[in-house]
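REVIEWER CHECKLIST
Item 1: Sequence provided? yes
Item 2: Single chain? yes
Item 3: Sequence as submitted:
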Amino acid sequence: MNNKQAIFSMRGGWIGALMLCALLSGCYETLPMDKVYAEPGQDNVLAWQIADPAFDDPTLEAPLPWPPSQQAPPPQEAAAPRKLYEWHGDGRKITRIVVDTNEQRAVFYDGNEVIGWSTVATGLANHPTPTGEFEVIEKVVDKYSNLYGRIYNRAGRLVNSSARQGRDPIPAGGRFAGSPMPHWMRMTHDGIGIHAGPIPRPGSPASHGCIRLPNKMAETVYQHTPMRTQVTVVGNGPDYGNYAERLRQQRDERIRQRQAAQLAEAAAPDSTADSLDAAAYEGGMFSEDEVVD
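Item 4: Structure as written out by the authors:
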């Protein structure tokens, strides 16, 4: 052993001796990790739990696993398509329909019980759907608009996909084809009604004033809605008031006028046949629907 090695050996011995003295004198204490401490407010707390900040701070997230998982995360499922309607009224009749143009939604009632609902597309801002009280005054399974549609030229090529009859010119030899409005239920005499039609942006208006329903729901509603069913429209739109009541008053007035005319004809000389008709009417042989135009 040379002199340099001897010096390092002696230095290491002195360091070891100093550490041994410190341990024996109590100046240094090792903390066993399984030792239990009982401080105020803490019971059975281990030393490693005191040293770990995550034990006292529940807001800290647990550490990520290591090594990281080699498996790819599972693919996320596509969002379920939005439900456009719901129906549970088979075998029942709709007695009232309520349409909200702000919510773009129609609700169908049998008495006071809801038996279905549907997303609708009512009139755009420049063709708003009127609000008020209405009733179903006409039903046609295969209806075509006589106002809005498409224009084709002589060769059958589409030249205008959003045409209005009387406003847009039809080329020589061409034709106007009204837009289909299946399962039509008329509400007014100026062309407002309920029918099947596209709903391009559910929750937003899209029509020229009519109330569009999804195709399947339109067919169902048509089958379960009798004539004269009440239709209430609320929300934004021109107020038609109680349109249904005004129509009823007009029908009653026409009936009274026809009755008066028939009675006058019966009282005139040489009108035996007319008298028989008037007597039959008064006897109830004809219903209101048969005498109203």
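Item 5: Key structural point noted by reviewer: DSSP finds seven helices and 16 strands in the chain.
Item 6: Recommendation: ____
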